């Protein structure tokens, strides 16, 4: 005979949470609010609460700026080499292959020509999805070839930047692209052809320190983060707290570093007007 009898207890199951489709909501990188993804997509991928402009793909950017069916891409076969045989946790060749498989393109810059409200122009767009839009030898070469074609055809050049800077896996060869692309812009100036730079979030490092800030007109998307070194690096270097909004497009406009902040939905009209005037 048992001295103790264990009572059977029934454990109530926790209420099941209603299933929600993954990816229906996203968090804004600026205001940190949770927002409905489809609402953002309907708004040209702009946050409806704070007007932050989310990064968009190269194809979305081209569709936004170029008349339908008029874009012709150039130099799609250019591919980076590995002259330094660079290796960290993975070899540079393996990293390149992985990025090419992921994005479907050879490197981080897409160049070509198309019509903007009927006006012919050369368009160069950085792909932040390809190794952070880093500028290596192929990026520099493609930009310079695009400039040469623009000079031959007497066309304006529009550059849309979204980059973390120079590509460390190519060392000094990557840093040399700063001088190379700057020299190409100088050739445009000599030919008296317009060069318009559009800074998207983020634009940093060697790209900011060279070609991105050399436009005859420099535009930026709202709240885009633009600079050379990151804010934390600067604070640690100068041992001072940085002002609010430091390195945002609005801060740069206030201090004369850029010419105008343009919302994404107005960018195509603004570029067409600038091309017409220039």
From TrEMBL:
Pfam families: Carboxyl_trans, Zn_ribbon_ACC. It catalyses: N(6)-carboxybiotinyl-L-lysyl-[protein] + acetyl-CoA = N(6)-biotinyl-L-lysyl-[protein] + malonyl-CoA. A zinc finger (C4-type) spans 28-50. Residues 25-50 form the Acetyl-coA carboxylase zinc finger domain. Pathway: Lipid metabolism; malonyl-CoA biosynthesis; malonyl-CoA from acetyl-CoA: step 1/1. InterPro entries: AcCoA_carboxyl_beta (IPR034733), Acetyl_CoA_COase_Trfase_b_su (IPR000438), ClpP/crotonase-like_dom_sf (IPR029045), Znf-ACC (IPR041010). Residues 90-237 form the Acetyl-coenzyme A carboxylase carboxyl transferase subunit beta domain. GO terms for cellular component: acetyl-CoA carboxylase complex. It comes from the Bacteria. Its cofactor is Zn(2+). Its main location: cytoplasm. It is found in: Cytoplasm. It is an enzyme of class 2 (transferase). GO terms for biological process: fatty acid biosynthetic process; malonyl-CoA biosynthetic process. Zn(2+) binds at residues 28, 31, 47, 50. Binds 1 zinc ion per subunit. One of its GO terms (molecular function) is ATP binding. Its EC number is 2.1.3.15. Keywords: ATP-binding, Cytoplasm, Fatty acid biosynthesis, Fatty acid metabolism, Lipid biosynthesis, Lipid metabolism, Metal-binding, Nucleotide-binding, Transferase, Zinc, Zinc-finger. The keyword Metal-binding applies. Belongs to the AccD/PCCB family. Acetyl-CoA carboxylase is a heterohexamer composed of biotin carboxyl carrier protein (AccB), biotin carboxylase (AccC) and two subunits each of ACCase subunit alpha (AccA) and ACCase subunit beta (AccD). Component of the acetyl coenzyme A carboxylase (ACC) complex. Biotin carboxylase (BC) catalyzes the carboxylation of biotin on its carrier protein (BCCP) and then the CO(2) group is transferred by the transcarboxylase to acetyl-CoA to form malonyl-CoA. This is Acetyl-coenzyme A carboxylase carboxyl transferase subunit beta. It comes from Nitrospira tepida. The gene is accD.
């Amino acid at each position: 005979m048992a001295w103790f009898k264990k009572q059977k207890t029934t454990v109530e199951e926790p209420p099941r949470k209603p299933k929600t489709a993954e990816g229906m909501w996203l968090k804004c990188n600026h205001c940190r609010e949770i927002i409905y993804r489809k609402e953002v997509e309907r708004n040209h991928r702009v946050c409806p609460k704070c007007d932050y402009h989310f990064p968009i793909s190269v194809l979305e950017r081209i569709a936004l700026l170029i008349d339908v069916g008029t874009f012709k891409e150039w130099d799609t076969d250019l591919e980076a080499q590995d002259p330094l045989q660079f290796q960290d946790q993975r070899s540079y060749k393996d990293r390149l292959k992985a990025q090419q498989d992921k994005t479907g393109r050879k490197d981080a810059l897409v160049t070509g020509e198309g019509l903007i409200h009927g006006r012919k122009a050369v368009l160069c767009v950085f792909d932040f999805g390809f190794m952070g839009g880093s500028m290596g030898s192929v990026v520099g070469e493609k930009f310079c070839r695009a400039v040469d074609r623009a000079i031959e055809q007497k066309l304006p050049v529009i550059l849309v930047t979204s980059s973390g800077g120079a590509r460390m896996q190519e060392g000094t060869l990557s840093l040399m692209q700063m001088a190379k692309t700057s020299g190409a812009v100088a050739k445009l100036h000599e030919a008296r052809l317009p060069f318009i730079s559009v800074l998207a979030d983020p634009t940093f490092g060697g790209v900011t320190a060279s070609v991105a800030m050399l436009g005859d007109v420099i535009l930026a998307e709202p709240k885009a983060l633009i600079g050379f070194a990151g804010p934390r690096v600067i604070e640690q270097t100068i041992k001072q707290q940085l002002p609010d909004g430091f390195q945002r497009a609005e801060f740069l406009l206030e201090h004369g570093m850029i010419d105008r902040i343009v919302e994404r939905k107005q960018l195509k009209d603004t570029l067409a007007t600038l091309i017409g005037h220039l």
